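USER:
I would value a second opinion on how I read folds in token form. Give me a protein, with the fold worked out from its sequence. Write it directly below this note and I will take it from there.

ASSISTANT:
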Amino acid sequence: MTDSIAAPAAATDKRVPFRHIFLTGGSGYVGRNLIRHFVAPGIALTALVRCDASAEIVRALGAVPFRGDFFDAGLANGMAGCDALVHAAADTDHGPATERQRRVNEDGTQAVLQAARAAGISKVIHLSTESVLATGRPVVNVDETMPLPRKPAGGYSRSKAAAELIALAANGPDFPVVVLRPRFVWGRDDTTALPTLLEAVRSGKFAWISGGTYLTSTTHVANLCHAVELALLRGRGGEVYFISDGEPVAFRAMVMALIEAKGHAAPEKTVPRFVVRAVAAIGDLMANVSGGRIIPPLTLQAYATSAVEVTFDIGKARRELGYAPVISREEGLTELRADRH
């Protein structure tokens, strides 16, 4: 597998005022790609890591690891000399809500932002998610004016929405904070969603929900990296921007393409949406009644992510950031086909 990635023209834009970035979540899927993206044109990058294995990953990619966690008293010292923060770390579990997830996503965001302010960071990019709007009902071609729901789908949506509010509340004239909301991040080097999907296919547990014909927005990881760069350059503090590959695509068509790109046959099995919705509701009930001791096979959080239409308008990012996808879906799929190990 090559470490090359389609580099946007802006990657070498000398107007980018940030020469040293501090990154959380550097050893994760998005974080690894952000390191590649920014190190390539010569931008220094320090990444927060919690273990030796993570330190080796970010070091091999060209970043400097800083050992610690969100709540270390010395975190601001680790950010010393950095002029920007990209907060990409999060607990993304789509199972029942946990106190750990709340602490990581909410308290962790608060702690990282406090450290950044103390360190003199001059701009923050907070990576959020379209799941802050998830309730289990379709989300159709929405924009950033859509309010956060009163009853989110689950712990992930609830804690990431709270993290967004914490980030936006920290914004100020001398500390601009910009929020990006990607959806369905995919592409090369995926060690999260794609391996899980392929395992479900191999085990025979995968099925299309009501045929999978509903639409979805998607975000190739190279497009997300490009958006982060543009947000550093042009993003307005206190603003939220949806980021995607452009026009939505049928969920089945996209997932089938991912499966086939990795050399597997797409399954044909389908289940009615109402059955899946009922299983998710029962799963949430079991988890709540048992106080989290029972781990259900499906939650409303997971259902809301994959069983209904989720699409949005990226017009604001186009207008204000000058954003446009730098890699098409077909180009991204070609990249995946070239790497089938």
DSSP finds twelve helices and 15 strands in the chain. The CA atoms of residues 208 and 270 lie 4 Å apart.
